[in-house]
Design brief:
Elements (H helix, E strand, L loop, with lengths): L2 H8 L7 E6 L8 H9 L8 E5 L2 H9 L4 E5 H15 L21
Antiparallel strand pairs: 1-2, 1-3
Pfam families: Ribosomal_L30
Organism: Ziziphus jujuba (Chinese jujube)
Keywords: Ribonucleoprotein, Ribosomal protein
Length: about 110
């Protein structure tokens, strides 16, 4: 099980008015009917995500190309984006001081 599938299983699935559809497999070599369906969904390149209303028509189109796409609800999509944003967040720079501090003299002069 890859990390994305593990992430999807950890997020609770609820009914959502919108579906986020991501093309995860390439278009070349697929059937013409599948290419036309992806074109109708406006999915042209790999790893691109589109948002569509959760209607029977869209669910039927997704069912037709289910081996090429990943479908997420709104909550799943937002959780994934938040996790990616936290991963890419700026971290404080690591400062390395290569010059040793001068020895402190204990006797007053």
């Amino acid at each position: 099980m890859n990390a994305f599938k593990a992430f999807k299983t950890s997020v609770p699935i609820t009914w959502s008015p919108n579906l986020y559809i991501t093309l995860v497999r390439g278009i070349p070599g697929t059937r013409r009917l599948h290419r036309r369906t992806l074109e109708a969904l406006r999915l042209r390149k790999c790893n691109r995500t589109v948002m569509r209303w959760n209607t029977p028509t869209v669910r039927g189109m997704v069912q037709q190309v289910k081996r090429l796409v990943v479908v997420e609800t709104e909550e799943m999509y937002k959780a994934r984006k938040d996790k990616e944003a936290k991963h890419r967040a700026l971290r404080p720079p690591l400062v390395v001081d290569h010059h040793p501090a001068p020895p402190a003299s204990d006797s007053p002069q």
